[in-house]
Specification:
iron, 7 helices, metal-binding, Cyt_c/b562, Four Helix Bundle (Hemerythrin (Met), subunit A), electron transport, 154 residues
Length: 154
């Protein structure tokens, strides 16, 4: 029988671990801009999702069980360009740096890498290819960190 772990339990567990991903998304300020709220919410939900996906990589057995959460990450990655529209530049409560809109090509390259990494993660999970899955997970995490270093205020 499969065990069901509610998303809030995974979120609480990831908060208790002191993960860097959690620290990158704490203390949200409500912006009242639906696009900014959507991107902040999506990135916050990535924390427990990446935690769950990471457990699949670390555990024994099939990584195919991570195909569904990996598909959610890939879907969110595809939505990112729409969530960083020019009208969201300077929104109070957003941690997005002006460099996102000043360096459109650089930001687009970061988003493209994240999209590619999450697509590879989903494909590896669906193929039940642990080696490719682990590499794609590392690539996905590195993509998050790289983009935040360049385009997110502390």
């Amino acid at each position: 029988m499969r065990k069901f772990v509610p998303a809030f339990a995974l979120a609480a567990l990831s908060l208790a671990t002191g993960s860097q991903l959690v620290l990158a998304h704490e203390d949200h300020v409500v912006t009242h801009d639906p696009l900014v709220e959507a991107r902040k919410g999506g990135m916050t939900m990535m924390v427990p999702t990446l935690t769950a996906v990471g457990r699949a990589a670390e555990g024994e057995g099939s990584v195919a069980r991570a195909a569904f959460p990996a598909s959610g990450l890939a879907s969110f990655a595809r939505s990112l360009p729409a969530l960083f529209g020019p009208d969201t530049d300077g929104t109070t409560g957003s941690a997005a740096l002006p460099a996102i809109w000043e360096d459109e090509a650089g930001f687009a390259a970061q988003v493209a890498e994240f999209q590619s990494a999450t697509a590879a993660l989903e494909a590896a999970a669906r193929a039940d290819d642990r080696e490719s899955f682990t590499a794609a997970l590392d690539r996905t995490k590195a993509s998050c960190q790289s983009c935040h270093e360049a385009y997110r205020a502390e």
